[in-house]
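Protein modeling request. Please complete all fields; requests missing the sequence field cannot be processed.
Requester role: graduate student
Desired output: 3D structure, token encoding
Chains: 1
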Amino acid sequence: MARQLEKYQLVERSIIKKYRKEIWNPFIEGVKNYQLVNDGDKIAVCISGGKDSMLMAKLLQQLKRVSETDFELVFICMDPGYNEENRRRIEENARLLNVPLTVFESDIFAVTESVGGKPCYLCARMRRGHLYAKAKELGCNKIALGHHFSDVIETTLLGMLYGSQLQAMLPKLHSTNFEGMELIRPMYCINESAILAWVRYNGLEFIQCACRFVNEYSTSDDGIGESKRREVKALIAELKKKNPDVEHNIFKSIHSVCLDTFPGYKTDGDAHSFLEKF
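Delivered output (278 residues):
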């Protein structure tokens, strides 16, 4: 008689079996191509409670089991002021998926609430600072965030359309405030559509955005809400109807920027003009 598998084991099997082409292979591609995980690393896997970070946790657990690279993982979740329901859902999902989660608290929601408006930039910076600090306290040299392929594409277009800049999202970067620490994005090559399919297939339910300032996020189908990012999502979806390769073309373009064709560019914070070499 076949052994009955636990829920987390079925979830793990789906990653390397059913979604091997869409999730596991792109994950391995990103880890290898961008050299994200190395011998001696101790990585703090940062769990927000959403679908992306939870899948990232399972991917890194699987990598730990099969890789010849010697590295350690710790799984941390910062509670910035979640309501009881969201906090409970995060902890229940961690147990369900066999992710040994360490939760620590901060007052980020309270601080940003005092600022007023929708202080997303401040919140994001504060979150990252708390995660770096906790990771360093635990002896880690890297933090892993759950940004994926679709985030990379959307961020690039957002910068162009609304920020007047051509700026991409790197697969890894050095911390400017925490010496010796790095940030890595292991899901850099995984499309969000594959993540959503994986969630539905396994019947999982994660929190979406728990921000107090944008309540519409919690009821949207994609966890984005009525935002500029959602506008960009809709734009990409429309373009894909005529050209299915739109996303991959954008992704390839940020890997092959030709500075010789740009009238201006920045490097290390300094602005330069094509006239310097004209």
